[in-house]
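Q: What would this chain look like folded?
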Amino acid sequence: MMVDKRSRDEIAMLVAKDIPEGAYVNLGIGLPTSVAKYLPKDKEIFLHSENGVLGFGPPPEPGEEDEDLVNAGKELVTLLSGGCFMHSGDSFDIMRGGHLDICVIGAFQVAVNGDLANWHTGKNDDVPAVGGAMDLAVGAKTIYVCMEHVTKKGQPKIVRSLTYPITGEVCVNRIYTDLCIIELRDQQAYVIEILDGVSFEQLQAVTDCVLIDARIA
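A: My prediction, written as structure tokens:
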């Protein structure tokens, strides 16, 4: 499919726009951490990182970096007023105790029933990187996945059933890709937004599961 796609930053902008006031949010390593740059400054949103930071903000301006202040991906962040540090054990208590409203996470695959695969492709030469993903998948109230719609080889990443090792069962609520936004509910995939210039038929052609066009009233 030869169309212009959203950039990774544009995907992050879409996610940031949908995070509500007062939410406690964990941003996963990779593309999800970019969401911090685009959160509206007029909203109070509490960002959490499993390495023990709560209430952090966007990356620092040049010259204002603190090498000791990083997120779980070892990326430099800022600390907002009221932000705090804690032991990683306490940080995981927040994750496992159901205290996070939203987790924004990347994925290798998402199944139509909401199953998530994001820690290993199953290849012998790949390095597994589970981190806190399993804890977040079962602990957060809502899971947003942000990712490219297909692999570098053009294979669908939104599928009927996972072929990669599972991270969490029936946990994904919404998917943001470079082509669309999809809500998963009742074992079905509802397309609620499509990038301008992409038809529903084109989107279905690069998606392994059946899509439902929820833009139609």
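The first helix runs from residue 8 to 17.
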